[in-house]
Design a protein that fits this description.
Shape: globular
Order of helices and strands: EEHEHEHHHHE
Helix content: 25-40%
Distance between the termini: 25 Å
Structural class: alpha/beta
Radius of gyration: 15 Å
Number of strands: 5
CATH architecture: Alpha-Beta Complex
Number of helices: 6
CATH superfamily: Protein tyrosine phosphatase superfamily
CATH class: Alpha Beta
Largest sheet: 5 strands, mixed
Strand order of the largest sheet: 3-2-4-1-5
């Protein structure tokens, strides 16, 4: 399946950030311009009541494909199907998981690649730790040529960025960023 998607503005968040006191939510914006992908089974009252374009797709944050509940091909297919069925008016994707750093970051990185953009804003961001199983399986299902070695290289780049942050080196990235 070759899945080419349009260039959405991507918001990577923790599910707890969907709170009107913390973040300008898509609920405050025209519903037809937004879509939400929820990659956790954690509940959020604001998202439960969200009537816009929403995909609830819970899977565990594990990188071992043999673990029951790990990201599977069916999850990747559901995400691709959801993205491909979004109305043309949708311009912003809100992708969230429990902490907004692993599953959501991996989905965002894959969607960036699917839209023909660089996934560097995710992999080089030291505040993220993208789940390599999610990234790899979603890219493969979308028809993006990628090898496990390439994914491992991206993971090493991410770990290096994290170590540099820990050493006090400046970074241009921030947590829960918006990628345009």
């Amino acid at each position: 399946m070759d899945a080419k998607v349009k260039k959405y503005t991507i918001h990577i968040l923790a599910i707890t950030a969907f709170n009107p006191k913390l973040y300008e939510l898509p609920f405050d914006l025209p519903l037809e311009r937004n879509a939400v992908i929820i990659c956790t089974d954690r509940k959020n009252e604001y998202l439960q009541n969200y009537t816009g374009n929403k995909l609830d797709i819970a899977f565990y944050d594990v990188e071992d494909p043999s673990v029951i509940g790990a990201f599977e091909t069916a999850h990747a297919m559901a995400i691709i199907k959801f993205i491909n069925r979004l109305p043309d008016e949708v311009s912003d994707l809100y992708i969230c998981c429990s902490k907004g750093q692993s599953r959501s970051a991996a989905v965002a990185a894959a969607l960036l690649r699917m839209s023909g953009r660089s996934d560097d804003p995710v992999w080089l961001n030291p505040f993220y730790n993208p789940n390599i199983l999610v990234y790899y399986r979603l890219c493969k299902q979308a028809g993006i040529p990628i090898t496990p070695e390439e994914v491992q290289l991206r993971k090493e780049q991410n770990e290096k960025a994290y170590l540099e942050l820990q050493e006090g080196k400046p970074t241009k990235y921030e947590r829960w960023q918006i990628i345009e």
